[in-house]
Amino acid sequence: MVFLTILLFSYLQMSQQIQKTTANSKEMISNPRLIPVHGTLNIVRNQNVTLSCHSDSGSPPVRYTLFKHNQKVSTLNRPDLTPSLFNLTINSANDVGEYKCKAENNISSGGKYSNSLNFTLLEPVSKPMLSSPTAQAKKGQNVTLSCLSENGSLPITYIFFRGRQSISPPVKMQKREAAVIFLFINSSSDFGPYKCRAENSVHNNTKYSNSFNFTLAEKFKSTMSSTGFTSTTNAEESEDYVIYAEIEPVKTEEYINFSAIRREDGKAEERACATIYSKAIFRD
Ligand SMILES: *[C@@H]1O[C@H](CO)[C@@H](O)[C@H](O)[C@H]1NC(C)=O
Ligand SMILES: *[C@@H]1O[C@H](CO)[C@@H](O)[C@H](O)[C@H]1NC(C)=O
Ligand SMILES: *[C@@H]1O[C@H](CO)[C@@H](O)[C@H](O)[C@H]1NC(C)=O
Ligand SMILES: *[C@@H]1O[C@H](CO)[C@@H](O)[C@H](O)[C@H]1NC(C)=O
Ligand SMILES: *[C@@H]1O[C@H](CO)[C@@H](O)[C@H](O)[C@H]1NC(C)=O
Ligand SMILES: *[C@@H]1O[C@H](CO)[C@@H](O)[C@H](O)[C@H]1NC(C)=O
Ligand SMILES: *[C@@H]1O[C@H](CO)[C@@H](O)[C@H](O)[C@H]1NC(C)=O
Ligand SMILES: *[C@@H]1O[C@H](CO)[C@@H](O)[C@H](O)[C@H]1NC(C)=O
Ligand SMILES: *[C@@H]1O[C@H](CO)[C@@H](O)[C@H](O)[C@H]1NC(C)=O
Predict the structure, then answer these.
(1) 83 and 167 together in one domain
(2) How remote is the CA of residue 50 from the centroid of ligand 1, in Å?
(3) How far is ligand 7, taken at its centre, from the CA of residue 186, in Å?
(4) Cα–ligand 6 centroid distance for 139 (angstroms)
(5) Which atom of ligand 2 is nearest to the CA of 76?
(6) Is the peptide bond before 249 cis (omega within 30 degrees of 0)?
(7) Do residues 259 and 242 touch, judged by C-beta distance below 8 A?
(8) Structural domain of residue 107, as residue ranges?
(9) Ligand 7 within 6 A of 186 CB?
């Protein structure tokens, strides 16, 4: 009796499955979904993208067709319900959109259409320009630095550096306007070198600006010559010194401040190694 019950139960289950399979083979295809496989619709020119078109239900085989601006791009046949992958290269503004796909099987007449997709073409940032309206500065002066990328999709985020050290929080610009910082020139290292960096939502495309130095505005016309000035630091490295002289009268004495900044050419990021030499000259 128990055996018979099990047999009957198994038979019922089997027939149910057969019915289901028979129903499946006649199932209409569902509306497919069109999605970018890499997950984002923001892309750069000449980027290769893969679009996936997929119906969740319907009896295979399935024929998928991709459309751009209602025009057929290509057709793929799938023997089962796995997604079909369309590979595209976005070269121009015309390739940006509007994409749709269609799924068809033998039961559906005319097929079913997917959602539409439009890509957004992003432009990488160009090398930013670092500049200042006050090229010459002296100690105790307030100066400004401006950083601007001529090209690149907005928003653009800028960061300012002195040597290798960042001297500003990230400045996010929603308009094509320069990011500006204010500086107080307090010591010889405040003369530079400065750089700025720009980036936007295009991945892996950070750009550094030109290097910028403020030159010292001399307080007096100096007839001083920098010849004869010798370095007392290690002469092993081949060093190229930039010498600034500042002369300030103190009663009858004159102080001469030299600042020697080592130049390290051929490096992407300059490091200012400033040494200040001081010498008092007494006039008779
Ligand atoms: C994009 O695809 C084309 C053709 O399939 C190929 O020639 C090109 O190198 C690919 N570009 C990138 C950036 O992968
Ligand atoms: C698209 O590229 C994927 C791999 O990125 C590949 O599996 C697929 O077959 C390609 N589709 C076509 C139609 O070439
Ligand atoms: C429809 O069915 C016929 C015969 O069974 C088959 O040859 C054809 O490939 C099918 N078409 C599609 C779109 O599934
Ligand atoms: C794609 O762009 C077209 C035409 O500009 C527009 O009609 C459609 O609504 C857009 N689709 C999406 C999903 O943004
Ligand atoms: C910005 O784009 C224009 C037009 O494409 C180009 O002429 C110019 O050289 C670009 N500027 C920079 C800094 O790359
Ligand atoms: C520089 O700016 C600061 C505040 O921004 C101000 O307190 C100071 O007086 C300014 N100095 C000069 C020389 O303008
Ligand atoms: C200028 O430098 C001196 C000594 O390094 C420091 O005490 C002072 O706070 C600085 N002033 C400003 C405005 O940064
Ligand atoms: C960024 O670019 C560098 C060099 O062009 C490359 O080696 C690296 O794999 C890229 N990283 C990403 C996340 O694309
Ligand atoms: C700024 O000064 C540094 C250190 O002296 C030097 O390496 C760099 O070339 C200078 N940059 C410019 C643009 O003059």
Answers:
(1) no
(2) 12
(3) 6
(4) 12
(5) 13
(6) no
(7) no
(8) 26-122
(9) yes
Token pair 């002195």: residue: 162
Residue 71 CB coordination number (10 Å)? 7
Cα dihedral across residues 108, 111, 115, 117: positive or negative: positive
Q: Which amino acid is at 161?
A: F
CA distances from 234 to 33, 124, 186, 238, 274 (A): 69, 43, 27, 9, 14
Residue 65 burial (C-beta neighbours within 10 Å; 0-12, 13-18, 19+): buried
Contacts of 210 (CB under 8 A, 6+ apart): 127, 129, 130, 195
Note whether residue 13 is domain-resident: no
- Kindly state if the Cβ of 74 falls inside 6 Å of ligand 2: no
CATH of residue 147's domain is 2.60.40.10
Q: Indicate whether 237 belongs to any domain.
A: yes
> 273 and 253: one domain?
yes
Which residues, including other chains, have CB under 8 Å from residue 255's CB and lie 6 or more apart?
247, 248, 278, 279, 280, 281
Q: What is the largest CA-CA distance in the chain?
A: 131
Instruction: Give the distance (Å) from ligand 5 centre to CA of residue 153.
Output: 13
Annotate 206-233 with three-state secondary structure. CEECCCECCEECCCCCCCCCCCCCCCCC
- Check if 87 has its Cβ closer than 6 Å to any atom of ligand 2: yes
pTM, entire model = 0.63
Taking only the tens of pLDDT, the chain with its 284 residues reads 555 555 455 555 655 554 444 444 578 899 999 999 988 888 888 889 999 999 999 888 999 999 999 999 999 999 999 999 999 999 888 888 899 999 999 887 789 999 999 998 899 999 999 999 988 888 888 999 999 999 999 999 999 999 999 999 999 999 999 999 999 988 888 887 999 999 998 888 999 999 999 888 765 444 344 443 433 333 333 333 333 434 343 333 333 343 333 344 444 334 443 333 444 444 43
